[in-house]
Structure prediction request, 372 residues.
Amino acid sequence: MSKSEKNIRVIISGGGTGGHIFPAVSIADEFKRQNHGTEILFVGALGRMEMERVPAAGYKIIGLPISGIQRRLSYKNFAIVINIIRSMIKARNIIENFKPDIAIGVGGYASGPLLRIASQNGVPTLLQEQNSYAGITNKLLAKKASKICVAYSGMEKYFPADKIVITGNPVRNIEMSLELRDKGFEYFNLEKNIPVVLIMGGSLGAKTINESILDKIEQLNNSKIQIIWQTGKYYYDSVKEEVAEKTEKNIHIHDFISRMDLAYNVADIMISRAGAISISEICLTGQTAILVPSPNVAEDHQTKNALALVKENAAILVKDQEARKILVDRMIEVIQNTDLRKELSHNSKKMAKPDATSEIVREAFKIIRKGN
Prediction:
């Protein structure tokens, strides 16, 4: 490694949800692993969850005053345009002061102004697109990007084909072991001889999943199941209050689970939305998963994500509009069918791409070397 590479400077920009933040942190961690001297700066959106989660992971972050444009005509869009201009000015100051060797965009509002200014200042850029349907920010930035790392084939309909590299999605380094499983039972205050269901609606929560469980809470009281339930911060208080009225010991409510490694280790099955990073982590950890794709996403891409597993018999799909009626019944059926759980787990693990993060960082180093 050359002397210049020992002291490279990297900006990683994006966020808004855990689906953008956790991959970004994984990329940062991998830069440090491959080259300890890498200096990393995150750029996010003020008021979004990256402003808390990134410092908690040990990295510095600067926030831009930016949010998404309202799709409908709204007076709010005037203020948003002003904030875009302010964000561009702040992004220019960040680029000039930090002097990055590369800027990496992981999707989300903040990556737009930051990577656009980086390109204007001659800083090479790399995009990481997680979904089968490209986000609007990445589509706008693609023309100037040096490389675009994707998780799905067929992305040339959104990006220049000669810039695309299929790497898979970067995910947290999640170790699976009997030792961590034992630690997880203690951490979540669970009994070892009762099956565990992990319910995840994403970092912000999922209304349909939460309501589907609440509707059948008395049925769950009568079943021998323990539940670790991440409700999301928006639903936490109301769910906790309703659960407290109807059950006592077998349902453990969390607004956010920081020790997902322990949660994955103790879970016998998992109920989840079908965001790209959730799918990647399900495969990496070999989870038995019931997927409830969100209908409120562009081009219904979560259903496409889920079907990629379903067609390989690696997950079970429950449609959002059917979840309130059948989700809990399906969950109980899967819990009781040991052979099915083993088959789904085995097939999901076969679909994992455990080297995605290192491949993305290797692509970044290639870009940096070419620039030098």
Observations:
- The first helix runs from residue 3 to 6.
